[in-house]
Automatic annotation (TrEMBL):
The chain crosses the membrane at residues 20-40, 52-72, 92-109, 121-142, 148-171, 183-203, 223-246, 258-281, 324-345. One of its GO terms (biological process) is protein transport. It is a multi-pass membrane protein. Belongs to the SecY/SEC61-alpha family. The keyword Membrane applies. It comes from the Eukaryota. Keywords: Membrane, Plastid, Protein transport, Translocation, Transmembrane, Transmembrane helix, Transport. GO terms for cellular component: membrane. The lineage of its organism: Eukaryota, Sar, Stramenopiles, Ochrophyta, Eustigmatophyceae. It is found in: Membrane. This is SecY-type transporter protein.
Length: 378
């Protein structure tokens, strides 16, 4: 009894330390997110659109992770062990993140040129270097958070650097609405919270049995759980960031520019498809079905529902693919609801702030599951 109490106190203390250090990191990120960029005349920019040292965010890391996952899913499989495969993927993601950060910083410098104090080459190099440095700092912090706290570092970084500001601005704008729009806004936020909770808490489970249990009719199978869509938020962010780049090219197409109605339908349909597609790949990035299948084989376990001649890995991939695509479809419908509400209440910017709300609720649930539970379980 005494041992259990002491062990519980240690867990509680450990949990408190982890939460404390997490919020220290969050405070540092909040400070860095307010550090201005050099060579920029901020008096020429509105308060709501003033880039900071961390202007690149963690999108280079998110996009690199997605591209690496797609690349590794289509290339021929090798005989590398899990650790070597993991090391190679992490190296590819780091290299990809740096390349994307450089490319994005160059486009940022080009867009910020009109508000620079000086248009000299040196000023542009200093500005680009600052943007790249801020992006690399966020990538390092994101990876450190993932390893130290067993959280999604990208989500935590986004929450502290931009989501909090977006949510405060969203609530401030909604407070100026009339009663009916306020009620619609409240119901919308509840719907987003419910969807986030469903995505975070729900799982798809596969019953598994050992070879010995298979011969015993009284043995109950164990359950192998998987999150139904672990990459939901990253899918939305990736889709929106790619869509912003594509819209630059779309606006150059004459037949789309002439008809804004057709253009909005085309962009909406493209967004719908991208969200479902990225939902699958961002989720697959976090679940290695090949590794799970090997572990089951090592433990001499088999999935009850699969066909006798079907390989475990193929069965898992097929089932998880359906699950992730279905969850992505639900996410796309939520985005569609945001677009419809945006037509009636454009000043709030529900669609633009949907990812921020999902990140906020998702981070809160993740903190509850991974950190606070450590100190509450007896």
């Amino acid at each position: 009894m005494i041992t259990n109490i002491v062990s519980s106190e240690k867990l509680k203390f450990s949990s408190q330390k982890r939460v404390f250090f997490l919020f220290v990191v969050g405070a540092c990120l909040r400070f860095l997110s307010k550090v201005p960029l050099p060579c920029i005349d901020y008096s020429l920019l509105p308060l709501a659109n003033r880039p900071s040292l961390l202007a690149l965010g963690v999108l280079p890391l998110v996009q690199a992770s997605l591209l690496v996952q797609v690349f590794n899913s289509v290339k021929p499989k090798t005989d590398d062990d899990d650790f070597d495969k993991y090391q190679k993927i992490q190296k590819q993601i780091k290299i990809g993140s740096i390349i994307i950060a450089i490319l994005v910083s160059l486009t940022q410098v080009k867009s910020l040129t009109p508000v620079m104090f000086s248009y000299s080459l040196l000023s542009k190099i200093i500005l680009a270097t600052s943007l790249i440095s801020g992006g690399l700092i966020l990538i390092w912090i994101s990876e450190w958070l993932s390893e130290t706290f067993s959280l999604s570092g990208s989500v935590v970084v986004l929450t502290f650097t931009s989501v909090i500001d977006d949510v405060i601005r969203l609530v401030s704008e909604a407070s100026n609405l009339d009663l009916i729009p306020k009620l619609c806004f409240g119901l919308y936020v509840l719907a987003v919270a419910g969807f986030t909770t469903f995505i975070s808490k729900s799982t798809v489970e596969f019953p598994i049995l050992s070879s010995k249990q298979s011969y015993s009719e009284q043995s109950k199978p164990s359950l192998l759980p998987f999150a139904i869509n672990p990459g939901a938020v990253m899918a939305l962010i990736s889709a929106e960031s790619l869509l912003r780049l594509l819209q630059v090219g779309i606006n150059q197409l004459t037949f789309l520019a002439i008809n804004p109605y057709f253009s909005s339908i085309f962009v909406g349909l493209l967004r719908f498809i991208l969200i479902i597609t990225f939902s699958y790949y961002c989720s697959k990035l976090q679940v290695d079905s090949d590794k799970v299948a090997k572990e089951l084989l090592t433990m001499n376990m088999t999935i009850v529902n699969k066909s006798p001649g079907q390989e475990t890995q193929n069965y898992l991939e097929d089932q998880l693919k359906r699950t992730y695509l279905s969850a992505g479809f639900m996410l796309a419908l939520l985005v569609l609801l945001s677009e419809i509400l945006d037509v009636y209440y454009p000043t709030i910017g529900l669609k633009a702030n949907l990812s921020s709300l999902l990140l906020l609720f998702g981070t809160m649930i993740d903190l509850e599951n991974r950190l606070f539970d450590l100190g509450l379980k007896k």
